[in-house]
Amino acid sequence: MSIDLFKETRIKLKEFARFLEMDLRENLITNNFTGELSKSIKIKVDQKKLKITLSFAEHGIFLDEGTRPHMPPVSEIRPWAQSKGLNEWAVAKSIAKKGTKAHPWLYTWDDAQFNERLKQLLGTGVESDLDTWVKNIKTKE
User: Fold this and answer.
1) At what angle do helices 74-83 and 88-98 cross, to 10 degrees?
2) Which of 20, 53, 57, 78 is least enclosed, having the fewest CB within 10 Å?
3) Span 34-67, pLDDT tens digits
4) DSSP string covering 11-36, please?
């Protein structure tokens, strides 16, 4: 009979992955026009390495960070522009001149709301460990 010393950690890792996926999708509700980005969020759990991998559609990073001025393909912005009653060429020219505004949906290490929800999920015993871990990551960036 083998004892899995990491069983509880693996369970918490899976719970965290589900929480992360749900929370990221929730963050997109107001910013996700087609739903494509929300549907593209994939979280892969490697229980042997105790690792989580997050992937999503390429445009997700542009939504999160905004963009510098560039001329987008009009065909790509047409559905959004038309739904807002805007001329797609005018929108494209505006993006070419100003870029796009950031609509953050990913997390930063100092996101207090996320940290609080994570602590609730993992339990109070890990609060100080999590705080130390976050501080260490911040100093290494």
Assistant:
1) 110
2) 53
3) 788 888 999 888 877 777 888 999 888 998 899 9
4) HHHHHHHHHHHHHHHHHHTTT-SSSH
Q: What is the pLDDT of residue 31?
A: 61
- CB–CB of 43/56 below 8 Å? no
d(CA 68, CA 62): 10
- Report the distance separating Cα 74 and Cα 81, nearest Å: 9
Residues pairing with 55 in the sheet: 42
Integer distance in angstroms from the first to the last C-alpha of the chain? 44
The two tokens of residue 117 are 């929800």
